[in-house]
Each structure stands twice: as structure tokens, then as C-alpha cells.
Amino acid sequence: MKKIKASLSNLKENISNKITRIKKEHLISLYIKNNILFLTFVITAVFNSTILRFFCMHMLENYLSFKAILADVTIAVVIGAFGYLFKPKNRFTYLIIANIFLTAICMINSVYYTFYTSFASVSMLSLTQYIGDVGDAVVENVLQLKDIVYIISPIALTIVHLKLKKKNYYKKIEIKSERKKRMLSTLGAGGILALLFLVTMTPLDVSRFAKQWNKEYIVMRFGIYIYQANDVITTIQPKINSMFGYDKAKKEFTDYFADVKDEPDKNEYSNIFEGKNVIVIHAESMQTNAIGLKFNDKEVTPTLNKLTKEGMYFSNFYSQVSVGTSSDSELTYNTSLMPTKSGTAFVSYYDRTYISTPKLLKEKGYYTFSMHANNADFWNRRTMHKNLGYDRFFSKQDYEVTKENTIGLGLADKEFFKQSIPKLQKINSENKNWYGTLIMLTNHTPFSDTEKYGDFEVNIKETITNEDGTTEEVIHPYMEGTKLGNYFKSYHYADEALGEFIEELDEAGLLENTVLVLYGDHDARLPKADYNKLYNYDKDTEELLSDDDPNYRKYDSYQYELGRKVPFLIWTKDMAGTKLNKEITNVMGMYDVMPTLGNMFGFYNKYQLGHDIFNINENNIVVFPNGNWVTNKVYYNSQKEAYLSLSDEAISEEEIKNNNEYANKLLDVSDNIIVFDLLNENKELETE
Ligand code: GP9
Ligand code: MN
To answer: Could you tell me if 432 and 304 lie in one domain?
Structure first.
């Protein structure tokens, strides 16, 4: 009896499950039936965006990226939802207009990508030369099948519409309140999808999205529609910023520079390098704290150690970057201006007028160029290097880049330098004077290509003698496996590349009349805990020293900030032993480079924000984009409104207040110069 009961209840359960399933299936098919046009709209929009990625990105995980598809579905659902506001017979008109618009975005980007291996930006519309180029590109390219395949989408939507019309599908009357309800519930679904999308986002996604220059990455993660919307916002934002407050900004600017002389102050270094050629090394992520550091008696940076010993070495030097990292350091190095408060100068304010080192040297007859074996659009360099006054930008397309000679982000530094030599020789033979910036790449976060950096041990190795007289090697697990440890390996590689480059330059006779200038572009953003281990590791206990140990070295957030120093040095082949061969320990920032080099090479920018370090000496102050600042005496943190004393001298409230005012004024003036284009002499005429 029990058995019968049990099997009966099983049967009941089975039947009810089946009914729910049928109901569900019925509901789904009912939903599909009632929303055919909307669903076709969504599918075709997602199809187009995916096809675009397929043509541009080749790798399956990129074009079939789950995140991008989710983003595209979300956008299409949200746009499509508003279709429900229209009467059924008008809904098609709305959806086809939206569809054509989205299709156009895909087509334009498809054509644009073929020519520029990058995605289109509405900001380019303000540059007439691009309109011409793109216009030609469209004409030449119009017959490429891959660019017209997107038309399938509006065609499909139209066919579906016509079929539905024939079946009298639209005759069904929907009352107004129902239309609103359908729109709201579809928007709700869009909201849930958007939430789902947001939770899949990583910090890297967010930061790249905000910066917008890495277009491929954004399209890969966010899909083409979100990319384009973000592009419109980032293009409009600087325009809006510069719409209000021009007069006030101009007045503050004039007041700020009112007392600045038209000629620089002279000192013992004035014009010492006049007529010399220049090689500037933009040393990716090189920090000062590795200089002189050894593991198992091996130097992390033998080349830098040698250069700092033989040349003029500024050991208390800071980079002043904001979110624009590499590009910000290039900006400040070249113009003595600070990074902008919002966006990045290279991406958002590429069309402003800048007074730069390459431009001023050009006036003295120099041929100017830059070299960086990465995609020319990275940080919008293609456009910005031209604006900064480089006659020629040698980028990835000028180098032979293969899978074998790649490390991390791109062409390995050793190979980059090697391939740059013949280019430099040619430039040297064709020009009396030249100035070139070489931007390194390998020593870039995440420093994970460790097997390609060559051998450099970051554990402690020790040979111990046993009681019986035999010896054995003991390895203490020190920095191996930490991010900082990997950084040292990578740094060691980059330093070695630099050493080989200097040798090659010498062999090619390119060092005879040349000054080598090197700056670390910014710190490597490494974990504080790793530094703690670096400075407080006790090999005997294989643990960290406790803070009451006499050898304990405190490494708190101030030490971390101070540890972000980067090297700056000036070196020539014959500098060792001369009066120029010295270490400068006064605090100095990237914005002081232009004034300092300007004095040495004989050029001057009245609107520089930094100082010639040999005029300001120990009275210098380095302002950071976040309002922090540092002098020889004190490091001030503007967020915490707290400071760390760096000397025995007392620090007065007054001093802190004055320096704060100085820092804020400087940051405002710098931002205004860029946002309101105040160095553009024609600007006044435009606004009158
Ligand atoms: C890319 C390189 C790195 O070309 O300059 O830029 P970063 O990530 O350091 O700003
Ligand atoms: Mn960098």
C-alpha cells in the first residue's frame, strides 16, 4: 500500500514538474512570439558588434568576449525598450532608425580600423586633416566585403518586419498603459543585465575605461557601443570644461607670470651643452631605490650605477604623474606643466598649444624625433608627439616585432635599442644637430615574463660549512615569487639593455657629441608589503624583524611615498672626473627638467612651472598632481593634512600654509593653461 502511495506521489510530482515546464516553455515561446521585432533588434545589434570584433581582433577570447557580448546585449535591450512606447505599427520605424545608427557605428569603425588599426573617435571630427583621410579611406575601402556585411542587420530587421506585417501581427491592439508597462519591464531587464555586467568588471577595466586611450581593450571588454558613447563623453568633457571661466583663467595666468623675466638667470651651467646632440631615455618604471641594491653581491642595476657614478646624478628626484602615467611624465618632462586635473593631457587636450623642449630646440636648428616600438596610438602619441614638436615618431610599424623578440607589452628593450641604432646613424649623418627621445617598454607592470628577463636571483644564497668540514648551499626564500622580486629581475634586464645600447652607441660613434639624459617615468606601483620584506627580512629566522629590533626599518605610507623617487641623470662619455660629475641631492621634480636643461642647452620657456635646480637649489618644492608636495625639509600629504619632517629643522604652520597655497595656485594655473589653451597666441583673437 505504502509503495503504491509513494509511486502515486512520484507520478504527481512528475506531472506537476512537466506542467510547470510546459508552462515555462509556453511562457518563453509566448514572450518570443510577442516580441519578435524587439528580439530581432537585439540580436542584430549584438551580431554587428561581434562581427566587428571578429574582423579586428582575430583571437576567439577577444571577439567572443563574454563581457563585451553582455555589454552589447544590455545596450541593445535598453535602446530597444523605448520602442515599446510607440504604437505597434510605428515601432518598426523607431527600431530601424536605432538599428541604422548602431550599424553605422560598426561600419565606420570597421573602415577606420583597416586604416589606423584603431577605433574611431568623434574627437577626430574636429581635426580637418582626419576627415580628409577618413573620407578617402571610405572611398578606397568601400568595396571591402567585411565593411558592408553589417548591412545584413537592417535588412534582417526589415524582412522580419515585412513578414510580421503580412501576418497582420501589428493589428493586435496594445493599450497605452500596457505599452508603458512593457517598456518599464524591458528597461528593468536591461538594468539587471547592466548590474551583471558591472559585477564582472575588474579595477583594470574601470581604469582603462576612464582613460579611454586603449581603444582596443575597451572595445574588447565593453563592446563598440559603450566605447563610442564613452568616446563622445570624453570628447565633449574638455570642451565643456573650457567653455566657462576663460577670462578669470587668463587673468590668473597673466598675474602668475607677471614677474617672470623674459631671460633666464644665468649660472655656471649656462650653455655648457649648446650644440650637442641629445638622447633622452624614458626609462619605464625605473625607481631610484634599486640603484646600488645587490642580491648575492650582484647589482640589480650595474649600468645605472655606473652612469650615476660617472655623470650628473639627481638622487632626490620625483616624477609627477597622475592617471596618465607614461604620457603625463612625457608631458611634464617636455613642457614643465603638470598633468591635467581631469582626463589626461595626451588624450583629452592633444590639440592645445604647448611650449616644449623639442619645439625650442627646433628653433635652434635641431632635428627632433621620438622612438617607441609600441602601437603609435598608445596614449595618443601619434597625435601628441607631433604637437610636442617631434619631427618624426618611429613607432611599432618602424620596427620588426615578432613573437620571439617580444617581452611583456611588446618589443623587448634590447631588440628595440638594437634596431634603433641604424635609424640613429642615418639621422646623425643627415643632421647637424638632433634631439631624440627613446621610450623603453619592457620594465612595465606586471613584470610577469620572468623567464625572459635572464638569470637574476632574488633569494639569498649562502654557503655554509658543516661540522664535518663539508660545505653546502642554503637558499633563504627572500624576494623570489614576490612582485617586487619580479620587478628587480625585469629592471635588471632593462638595465642590461641600456648598458648594451650605450656600448652600441659608442661603437657607432654616436656618443662623441652627445648628451645622454635619462629619467624614470614613474614608480612601478609595487606592494608596500613587499618593501617591508625587502628591508626587514631576517634570513636566520626566515621571518620579518619585529619593530623593536634595532635593524628594523619602518616602511609606512610616508616611506612608500618617498620611495617613489625615480632616477634623473645627465651623462656624457667624458664627464667622469669633471666638475659636472656630481650628485645633486636637493629635491627636484620632473617639471624642473625643462628649466634645468634649457639653461644648459641655451633655450628658455617663460611659462615653465618648475625651476632650474641650479638656481633654486635647496629652496625647491615639488608639487604632485594630488596636492601633496615635498621640500628638502618636509613631505606633506594633502589628503591626510599631515606631514613628515625630513630634517631636524622645525616646521612652522606658516610654512605649511604658504606651501599649500603655492601648490594649489601652481596646479590651477597649469590646468588652466592646458584647458583654456592659454599658450595659444591666436586664442585671444578667436574669443574676441
Ligand atoms: C606604453 C608605455 C606604457 O606605450 O609607454 O605606458 P604606462 O602604462 O606606463 O603609462
Ligand atoms: Mn610608463
So the answer is: yes
Supply the residue whose CA is at minimum distance from atom 3 of ligand 1: 326
What pLDDT does residue 133 have? 41
* Residue where a domain terminates, one of 211, 244, 277: 244
CB proximity list for 37: less than 8 A, separation 6 or greater = 83, 91, 92, 95, 157, 160, 161, 164
The CATH number linked to 260 is 3.40.720.10
pLDDT digits (tens, 9 = 90+) for 452-474: 999 999 999 999 999 999 999 99
Q: 381 and 303, same structural domain? A: yes
- Residue whose CA is closest, atom 5 of ligand 1? 326
Q: What is the Å distance from ligand 1's center to 539 Cα?
A: 36
The Cα–Cα gap between 563 and 315 comes to: 12
The one-letter code for the residue type at 502 is: I
Same domain? For 214 and 310 the reply is no
Residues 272/574, Cβ–Cβ less than 8 Å: no
Could you tell me if 229 and 304 lie in one domain? no
pLDDT of residue 127: 43
How many angstroms is it from 612 CA to the middle of ligand 1? Answer: 27
**Would you say residue 25 lies in a domain?**
no
- The boundaries of the domain holding residue 102 are 35-244
Looking at ligand 1, which atom is closest to the CA of residue 326? 10
Distance CA 147, CA 121 (A): 18
CA–centroid distance, residue 56 to ligand 1 (Å): 22
Which is the closest atom of ligand 1 to the Cα of 409?
Answer: 1
Residue 409 maps to a domain: yes
Task: Please give the pLDDT value at position 129.
Answer: 39
Same structural domain, 504 and 628: yes
* 582-584, strands of its sheet edge to edge: 392-394, 367-371, 434-439, 277-283, 514-520, 568-571, 312-314, 582-584
660: cell is 599649500
521 CA from centroid of ligand 1 (Å) = 9
Residue 536 lies in a domain: no
Which ligand is closest to the CA of 283, given by its number?
Answer: 2
Q: Which amino acid is at 31?
A: Y
Stated pTM of the model:
0.79
HSE-CB for 193 with a 13 A CA cutoff: 19
Nearest to 371 by CA among 438, 326, 284: 438
H or E stretch including 681? none
Which cell numbers in the block locate residue 422?
641604424
- Given 225, 244, 263, the domain boundary residue is 244
Domain count, the chain: 2
Atom of ligand 1 at shortest range from CA of 521: 9
Listed as ranges, residues in the chain with pLDDT below 70 are 1-12, 14-25, 58, 60-62, 116-117, 123-143, 172-173, 683-688
Rg over alpha carbons for the chain, rounded to the nearest Å, is 31
- For residue 619, the tally of other CB atoms under 10 A from its CB is 11
Same domain, 267 and 386: yes
Look up residue 82 and give its three cell numbers. 523605448
Please list every protein residue whose CB sits less than 6 Å from any atom of ligand 1: 325-326, 372, 374, 378, 439, 441, 444
Distance (angstroms) between ligand 1 centre and the Cα of 397 equals 17
Instruction: Let me know whether 490 and 638 are in one domain.
Output: yes
What one-character DSSP code corresponds to residue 676?
A: T
Q: Flag whether 541 is in a domain.
A: no
Using an 8 Å Cβ cutoff, are 336 and 591 in contact? yes
Answer whether 75's CB lies under 8 Å from 109's CB. no
